[in-house]
């Protein structure tokens, strides 16, 4: 009985040892298979034929091409924007140059016309006062006085020439003022009660109000207010006509305004503003 039991134990020990050997062999085989698979994938990767590598390379190539396309589109948009800005700035510079050129020409023409008008007024003034345009020196011969001749007495009757006056009014304004003075100074003729002249008439309005108007540093000071170029105003005349205008330039002794209705220009002198021939009112630019 003892011999049989020992034999069975030995058999079980041999079987367990045989199973351990098979497990180790299987495990070794799996290791070798995995190692061979990794070596094969590494070889394919080096050759560029690995499927996973090709899949990821395809995705990277798509991202690269998409980024290049976006960069080209951005460059095109930026180039178009720069070209549009260049064209816009160029047009603005050309327009500003043309406007400045026209304004300079108008200002020079206005100054020359004003100087011409002043010279003509000086000529008319000299003709009215009897003065000549040129002052010629008096050439007199001085004779040697004899011992018995009386000492010459200087002529005190000769009066010095009147001082020259420079008028800033036009010929029409001077004539209008003269006619007004003649009407005021003319004596009243006696009229009968039955004559038409005896009927009540409207008294002549004498422009007694004077407005303060002057030009300083390219701006107009009128009636305690300052006015500048491109300012919207109302221009009122003696016949109560109200015109909507814009100041287009300010000269040395006049301003130019442009009517908003037909864009025609008018020149207004300081003398006309001071006498009330024209009245300036502010208005909204809208």
Automatic annotation (TrEMBL):
Record's subcellular location: Nucleus
Record has Cytoplasm as a keyword: no
Keywords: Coiled coil, Nucleus, Repressor, Transcription, Transcription regulation
Organism annotation: Gadus morhua (Atlantic cod)
Annotated region described as Disordered, given as residue ranges: 1-21, 137-159
InterPro entries given in the database record: Sds3
Record-level GO BP terms: regulation of gene expression
Main location: nucleus
Keyword Transcription set for record: yes
SMART domains on file: Sds3
Entries under Pfam families matching the protein: Sds3 (PF08598)
Name assigned to this protein: SDS3 homolog, SIN3A corepressor complex component
Cellular compartments per GO CC: nucleoplasm
Coiled coil: 28-129
Primary gene name: SUDS3
């Amino acid at each position: 009985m003892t011999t049989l039991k020992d034999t069975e134990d030995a058999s079980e020990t041999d079987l367990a040892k045989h199973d351990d050997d098979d497990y180790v062999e299987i495990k070794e085989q799996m290791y070798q298979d995995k190692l061979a698979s990794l070596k094969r994938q590494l070889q394919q990767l080096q050759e560029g034929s690995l499927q996973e590598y090709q899949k990821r390379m395809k995705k990277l190539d798509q991202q690269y091409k998409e980024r290049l396309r976006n960069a080209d589109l951005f460059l095109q948009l930026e180039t178009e924007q720069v070209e549009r800005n260049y064209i816009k700035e160029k047009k603005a510079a050309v327009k500003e140059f043309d406007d400045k050129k026209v304004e300079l020409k108008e200002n020079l023409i206005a100054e020359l016309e004003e100087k011409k008008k002043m010279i003509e007024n000086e000529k008319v003034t000299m003709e009215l006062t009897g003065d000549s345009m040129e002052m010629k020196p008096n050439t007199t011969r001085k004779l040697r006085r004899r011992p018995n001749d009386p000492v010459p007495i200087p002529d005190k009757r000769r009066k010095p020439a009147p001082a020259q006056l420079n008028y800033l009014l036009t010929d029409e304004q001077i004539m209008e003022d003269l006619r007004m003075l003649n009407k005021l100074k003319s004596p009243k003729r006696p009229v009968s009660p039955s004559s038409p002249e005896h009927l009540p008439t409207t008294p002549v309005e004498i422009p007694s109000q004077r407005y303060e108007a002057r030009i300083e540093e390219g701006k107009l000071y009128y009636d305690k207010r300052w006015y500048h170029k491109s300012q919207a105003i109302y221009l009122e005349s003696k016949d109560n006509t109200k015109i909507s205008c814009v100041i287009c330039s300010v000269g040395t002794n006049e301003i130019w305004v442009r009517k908003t209705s037909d864009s025609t220009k008018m020149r207004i002198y300081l003398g006309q503003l001071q006498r009330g021939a024209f009245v300036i009112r502010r208005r909204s630019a809208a």
